[in-house]
Amino acid sequence: MRSRIKSTAALAVLTIAAGAGLAAFAAPAHAAQSPLPLTCGGQQLTVRIPASNSNPNGGWAVGQIIAGGTGHGVPTAASGSLVDHAVDQTLFTFEQAKGGGKANHNQSTISCTASETGVLGDYLGPGETPPPGTSANDPVTFTLMVTVVPHF
Question: Nearest Cα to 77, choosing from 39, 104, 48?
């Protein structure tokens, strides 16, 4: 599946007062940043996160709130899926917990979600063909869920 899924997942997983989607380590100041709209605990936020998940800490990065509030969030777990609505089938899922699921150190957490709709072709890599029974024109939704330690 295309880097867009992986990027979005990494960003979510990478972010959050969202996230990505991978966390608690700030990216270097020169790293590219991307905005990510999220709903966290019922609040609409836009979070700025590093556009790369290649840092030495596994890609987990703090998400800085840039609209809808102030502060930042430290992601501790992320999961997501890509659903093809034309065939009513989940094509991709992932689940990852930072620190083996113990990254929140017993701190309060909130759940953040983001979703994006498009066509399957948007999520395929160059030269990659759609899974059997699907079409590059099928409508799809990518959903990201992130557990975050809020600092706002």
Answer: 104
Q: State the pTM of this model.
A: 0.72
Q: Which two tokens stand for residue 85?
A: 């609505």
User: Taking Cα atoms as reference points, which of 102, 67, 75 lies closest to residue 21?
Assistant: 75
**pLDDT score at 74:** 87
Q: Which two tokens stand for residue 82?
A: 């890509």
Domain boundaries, position 116: 3-151
Residue 55, by phi and psi: left (phi above 0), alpha (psi -120 to 50) or beta? beta
Structural domain count, the chain: 1
Which tens digits make up the pLDDT trace of 27-63? Answer: 334 457 788 899 998 899 999 887 665 555 456 778 8
